[in-house]
Design a protein that fits this description.
Keywords: Membrane, Transmembrane, Transmembrane helix. With about 250 residues, the chain is mainly alpha-helical. The protein contains twelve helices and no strands.
Length: about 250
C-alpha cells in the first residue's frame, strides 16, 4: 500500500521513509472536530516517542484535552475506515450471492445453458467475495498499531480520577519534589492532572535520578553512612563536596 501511494505521489520512496527524513515534521492547522483531532494525535503517537507526544499534549489547554477525552469516552475503540467496513460487507454479500448461484446451478441440472451460466457466475462471485473479504482483513491487521495507539492516547488525555489505571502510580511519584513541583504548576496554570502529566512527571523523576548517578561515589557513601546520626549531612545533591580529606588508619580518618 505504501508503494502504491508513493507511485501516485510521484516518489519512489515510501511515505514512512520520507517522514523520517524530516523527523516526522508535518505542521497542521487546528483540526475542525474532536474526531479528526483524535485521529491525528493517534498517528503522531505512532511515529514519535511517548515523551515527544506527551510534551505536545501537555501544551494544550484543559478544554482541548477535555474534548479529546470526551471523544475517547464516546468511541473507546478506533473506528474502521469506510473502505474496510464496505469491503467486509461486500465480501460477505458476494460470497452469499455465489452460494445462491451455485444452488441455482444445481436446481437447473437438466438445462445445460442455465447450469453453465450459474456455475460461472457462482465461481466468479465466490472469488470476488473472498478477495474483497481478504483485502479487508489484511487492511485491518495492517492498522493494528493505530488501534493500540488509539487506546494509549485515551490514557494520555484521560483525567487522573478513580477510574484511571495510572492513579496510584502518579500518587507515588508526587512524593518526590520534581514531580510535586510539576503537579503544583499544572494545577495552578492549566487545570486537572491527566495521564499525560503522569508521563512527564515520570520522566522528570528519571532525569533527577540520572543526575544523582553523576555524583562522586565517595561523597554518596559518606552521606549514606552518616544519615540519621547527630550532625550527619543530608543525602541530597545540595551538600557541598569536601575537598580536603585526611587519610589515616581506623578512627584517624575524618
Amino acid at each position: 500500500m505504501s508503494l502504491v501511494n508513493s507511485f501516485f505521489d510521484g516518489s519512489l520512496l515510501g511515505s514512512e521513509r520520507l517522514m523520517r527524513a524530516r523527523e516526522f515534521y508535518a505542521p497542521e492547522r487546528t483540526p475542525p472536530s474532536p474526531q479528526v483531532a483524535f485521529e491525528r494525535w493517534t498517528q503522531r503517537l505512532v511515529v514519535q516517542s511517548e515523551l515527544g507526544t506527551a510534551r505536545e499534549l501537555a501544551g494544550l489547554s484543559d478544554a482541548e484535552l477535555e474534548a479529546l477525552q470526551s471523544e475517547f469516552i464516546r468511541c473507546p475503540t478506533r473506528p474502521r475506515s469506510a473502505y474496510v467496513r464496505g469491503g467486509i460487507w461486500a465480501g460477505v454479500a458476494l460470497v452469499a450471492l455465489g452460494c445462491l448461484s451455485a444452488g441455482l446451478s444445481q436446481a437447473n441440472i437438466g438445462n445445460d445453458g442455465a447450469t453453465g451460466f450459474f456455475e460461472v457466475a457462482a465461481i466468479g462471485l465466490l472469488i470476488a467475495g473472498l478477495v474483497a473479504f481478504g483485502w479487508s482483513l489484511v487492511a485491518s491487521f495492517s492498522a493494528s498499531h493505530l488501534d493500540l495507539s488509539y487506546g494509549t492516547l485515551g490514557l494520555y488525555v484521560g483525567e487522573l480520577d478513580e477510574q484511571h489505571p495510572w492513579l496510584y502510580k502518579a500518587v507515588n511519584l508526587v512524593r518526590l519534589e520534581p514531580a510535586a513541583g510539576y503537579r503544583r504548576r499544572v494545577l495552578a496554570e492549566r487545570g486537572r492532572l491527566r495521564g499525560v502529566d503522569y508521563v512527564l512527571m515520570r520522566e522528570l523523576v528519571k532525569a533527577h535520578d540520572q543526575l544523582e548517578q553523576t555524583r562522586p561515589a565517595r561523597l554518596v557513601a559518606e552521606q549514606l553512612q552518616t544519615l540519621g546520626t547527630p550532625g550527619g549531612p543530608p543525602l541530597d545533591s545540595a551538600t557541598p563536596e569536601p575537598r580536603l580529606v585526611q587519610v589515616g588508619a581506623g578512627g584517624a580518618r575524618s
